[in-house]
């Protein structure tokens, strides 16, 4: 299956002398430069993880808007925004503006989020004092989806400073046509994937699932994708959904690659715990290109997805990460029929 191929960066920064990304400024500016390089290489997307209270990327929309202004073709997205922290109306304004700047290229992954650096960090943002965090994330998402499609939410002032359009309830502005169809839910289980389909959101599946049935990760994830597609069809949605998976893939084509990632060639799935729930973590793919092609050909979830996000070690700098992306595009993707 032909695939869109992009990168997913967690945007780490650390003042260590071993890091090429030593400040928040470095992380932001290098993210923009890597997105520009990715477009020049012929890849398809630049995606960013969002974390709070951490030395990682935390406020996505200024970054997405900046990348939108510097590029013209690639998709620009998140993987994922933790909706527990979000004001849905403010987020709708930011998303609409960033999408218009980018010419309708935003692909926003949202979700309940993963464990954070602090306990219940969303409460410091003023949300969820007396609510269940998971349900709050879904409620924030439902309202966000409503307002980006133009649903009126605010009662019009009968004596405004400027004339109001017709109607008693006014929508959030600006509106960006088509954005609703470019919202993805980061699903960590098969059950959540079914819910995602019912809501009419695309499926974003990561390198871990918060369940374990004893089968290899890629098979469990492929089952999740199939359940999503079945539920999508049952819901009667008119458009075709999209599905992304993320993978750590490192072609070893020179001595620098081998020094950094040679030991990962023996990587295997792992089972552990996240938020006190059993989880299965997918392995890292590292090896000479010929071996990588053989290994990746057996990954059932990649085969089932239309979009592949390459998780990149952003602290190694723009040039090295561009090299990794180029190596996948040159040595791996054509051999697997992804291009």
From TrEMBL:
Output the Gene Ontology cellular-component terms. Answer: cytosol
Q: What is this protein called?
A: LLM class flavin-dependent oxidoreductase
Source domain of life is Bacteria
Q: Which GO terms describe its molecular function?
A: oxidoreductase activity, acting on paired donors, with incorporation or reduction of molecular oxygen
For this protein, the record's SUPFAM superfamilies field holds: Bacterial luciferase-like (SSF51679)
What is the originating organism of this protein? Amycolatopsis pithecellobii
Task: Give every Luciferase-like domain span.
Answer: 10-259
């Amino acid at each position: 299956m032909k695939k869109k191929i992009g990168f997913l960066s967690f945007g780490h920064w650390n003042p260590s002398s071993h890091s090429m990304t030593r400040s928040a400024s470095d992380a932001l500016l290098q993210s923009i430069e890597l997105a520009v390089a990715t477009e020049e290489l012929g890849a398809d997307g630049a995606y960013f993880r969002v974390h709070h209270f951490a030395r990682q990327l935390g406020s996505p929309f200024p970054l997405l808007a900046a990348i939108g202004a510097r590029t013209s073709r690639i998709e620009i997205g998140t993987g994922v925004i933790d909706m527990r922290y979000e004001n849905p109306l403010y987020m709708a304004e930011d998303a609409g503006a960033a999408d218009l700047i980018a010419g309708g290229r935003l692909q926003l992954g949202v979700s309940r989020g993963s464990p954070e650096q602090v306990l219940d960090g969303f409460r410091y943002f003023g949300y969820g004092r007396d609510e269940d965090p998971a349900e709050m994330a879904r409620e924030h998402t439902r309202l966000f989806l409503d307002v980006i499609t133009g649903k009126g939410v605010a009662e019009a002032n009968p004596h405004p400073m400027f004339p109001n359009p017709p109607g008693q309830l006014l929508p959030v502005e600006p509106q960006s046509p088509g954005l609703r169809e470019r919202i993805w839910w980061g699903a960590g289980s098969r059950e959540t994937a079914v819910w995602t389909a019912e809501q009419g959101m695309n499926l974003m599946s990561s390198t871990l699932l918060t369940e374990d049935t004893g089968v290899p990760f890629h098979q469990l994830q492929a089952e999740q994708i199939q359940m999503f597609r079945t539920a999508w069809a049952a819901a009667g949605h008119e458009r075709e959904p999209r599905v992304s998976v993320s993978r750590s893939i490192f072609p070893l084509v020179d001595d620098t690659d081998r020094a950094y990632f040679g030991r990962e060639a023996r990587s295997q799935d792992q089972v552990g715990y996240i938020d006190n729930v059993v989880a299965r973590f997918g392995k890292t793919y590292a090896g000479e290109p010929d071996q990588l092609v053989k290994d990746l050909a057996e990954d059932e979830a990649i085969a089932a997805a239309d979009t592949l996000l390459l998780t990149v070690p952003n602290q190694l700098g723009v040039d090295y990460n561009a090299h990794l992306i180029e190596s996948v595009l040159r040595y791996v993707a054509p051999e697997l029929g992804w291009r």
